Structures are given as structure tokens and as C-alpha cells.
Target: Histidine--tRNA ligase
Amino acid sequence: MAMIQRPKGTADMLPAQAYKWHTIEKLASETAEQYGFREIRVPAFEETGLFLRSVGETTDVVQKEMYTVTATGDSEFTLRPEGTAGVMRAVIENGLLNEAFPQKVYYLINCFRHENVQKGRLREFHQFGCEMVGSADAKADADVISMAKSFMDRIGLRDIELNINSIGCPTCRAKYQQALRDYFGARRDELCDTCKERLEKNPMRLLDCKSPICKEIGKNAPLIIDYLCDECSDHFEKLKKYLGLMGIDFVVNPKIVRGLDYYTRTVFEFISKDIGAQGTVCGGGRYDGLIEELSGKAVPALGFAMGIERLILTMEAQNCDFMEEKTCDLYIASMGDEAVDKSMELAMKLRDEGFFVEYDLMGRGIKPQMKYAGKIGAKFVLVIGSSELETGCAKLKNMASGEQADIKLDDSFVDNFSNALMAEMFKDIDGEMAALLGKE
Ligand code: HAM
Model:
């Protein structure tokens, strides 16, 4: 029988990997909350029109990468290729624009893009993102960037380069678009078909075309930074000043334009050199026109999103520490029906107190039960048979040291087990303390 396999460009996250994801998710929400961001959850699919109006009709994401679905008699929907559009739709629809500014939200989501699959480029991937609504001040840009940086520091990443640029506002962009039309127009015949079309509609999109020829031609294209109006220049200068004040290193990279249409003014990327060609672990910027485009109300906003798979790849490449996986505190091995009953009773008591406990569910003999306890990395094993039930006392085995101690199975059991576990967990620290005190 042919086995059905997972779709190309998707991944199964198995239990053995879960602790890596938990590390990211826990530190992401902790960092975001410290900066005043609160979690938002929105649907994984939206009306297709939302992405056309926000991400932009001439972007690769919309033209080539959307998973669009229809159900009989229903509208056309698209699996979200990114988070900002849906989150802004929710902010507007739920009246958050009437609340105190800045509104700050973060999210941990999956996204879908029909891309050419390669290392760090998937068709279903995950993002940690944040959005701040209401502030036009460059301090907000610096604050959002500092949050991204602080999170990456916390997960232990090193050598991540922050690239910043300004892509101006509609005023300064009009002149720039013309400069691009003149430049690329001179070599129109060499451009890919998509870019020929983009030349009229949205020439800035030529700058992030993935076709090798367009990329080559684009190398000497005019730079937006040379066309900024006074206000946009001033905003960018302030951002650089604030980043300096905050001690955040950056390089100005005038080639960053980002692949989504909604950006205005500040754009930025954090890039790792340790994971190959797809090294952008975080991308973001300001999108002061998007809320107006979607709601008619002019409200500035900005944010970023990081690819969780790329973060994990970088952490692995840099040997960063992940949160430790939880392991079983106690495995109760039992022989005979009455002993099984007792093991269930003891397990429930310990679980009620927060301990991680397992017992035999397979009807195995003692030897295979011990083997299983070893495999799951149980810290202690308790063995109960008929004689233990008779005497009310059993052996508690410390699996790391091999030591065994008697433990009563009466009401003192939970406290005594807790003491044994604490002694095991803190033995290294106790040893270090003793060594330190000895030296003094
Ligand atoms: P983006 O640059 O398209 O921006 O994606 C953000 C991050 O998601 C990228 O830097 C990368 O780490 C990850 N990513 C993107 N595509 C893939 C893929 N195919 N496979 C694996 N990882 C990927 C946005 O999505 C904007 N919504 C960010 C933003 C939020 N701007 C303002 N607010």
C-alpha cells in the first residue's frame, strides 16, 4: 500500500523536538510581555482580498505563493502567507483603534507560502511577530527593533547583523519609481515576464525579484535612500540616533526593500551568516498606510516577524542552549494486580502534587518495566510487589547513582519522595557550596 507522506515543504514537529519550540515560544512571549505587547490570535485563513490589498497584487507572495481555497458557495479564502494583514484586519474589526495608543500585540502563528523549498524556506513555516499601532515616532521603531534584539539575545543568538533602510513615503517614492522605470526600462527586453508587467504597475517590486537576470540588472539600480523627502530623512536620522543611544549596532543597507507592499519609511532585517542563503531570521518595518488602506482611518503602525524554523536552525548552528526537556521523576514498577492498584494510587497522589509520574500500562514483567524506565530517563524507580504491600515499605532506586533506599508507602510517601528528589536535584549545587565553604 502506498503510504501518504507529508506535503513538500512542511515538517512534523516530533515530541523529541518540542522542547526547542517551547524555548522559543516561552522566551518570545516573556520578552513581548515585558515590552507591553499582549497576545492576539487570529484565523489561519482570511478573505483573499485582504492580502491583495495589503501585501500587494504585484508581490511574489500574492502572484506566485498564495494557497487559495474555495468551498462550495462560499467566498474565496487564502491561507495566511504572513501575519500582519490578518492582525490589522482584527485590530480594525474589533475596535482596537478606539483604545489607548499605542496598541501592542504579538503572535505565534503558522504561515503558508507556495515557495521553492530549500533550507530555511518552507511552505508551512512559523512566525513570532509583533505589531505596534498608533505611533509615528521614530522612538517606536527603535523600541520594536530593540525588542527583537533583546529576544534574540535571550535565546542566545550571536553575530546577527541588523540591517536598516528607509523606503520613504508615497511622496518621495513617486520620483523614485520614475527613476526605476527609466533604469529598468532601458533593459526591458531582458527582464522576466512578471517584471515586465511590474515595470509599469510597481517598479520597486523588481528589486526583490528572485530571477537571476533581474537580480543582476537590479544590482546597479538607483537607491531609494537618495530620493527621501525631508520628513522621511529626518525620521531615519532619528532612528539611527535612538539605536545608537540604545547601544544597538546596525548597518545601513540601502538595498533592503522587503517583499511586501505595505512598508513605508523604516525597514529592517536581522541576518544570520550561519544558516546559508536564507539567513534573514527577522524582517519588519513601518507600514503607515496600511490601516488607512483597510479602514479609511489614517493610523501609523509598525512591527516585525521572525521565522521560528530559522531561529532554531541558527540556535543549533551556534550550539545555543535550549530549555531542558522534562523527564519522569518516578516510574513505579509493579508485580501483581494489587501492586498495580497501589501504583495507580501512589501515582495519582504524586501527580496531584505536581510530580511527573508513570507506571506500567502494558502488563509487562519487572525487567522490561525497568528497561522502559531507563529509556524514558526516569530519575527514580519504585518497585512494588506482594512483600512490599505486606510490609508497607518498598525500595526507591535512584537511577543516576544506583543507590537504593527504603521508603514507606503510607501517608509519609509523598513528602519522603519529594525530599529524595530534591536531594538528587540539588546534589551538584550542594557539592559546589561545600567546596566553596571548604575553601573559605
Ligand atoms: P517576511 O520577511 O515575509 O515578513 O517574513 C518574516 C520572517 O519569516 C522572515 O524573516 C523569515 O525568517 C520567515 N519566513 C518567511 N518566509 C519563510 C519561508 N518560506 N520559510 C521559512 N521562514 C520564512 C513578514 O511576514 C511581515 N509580516 C513582517 C512584519 C510584521 N512586518 C511588519 N510587521
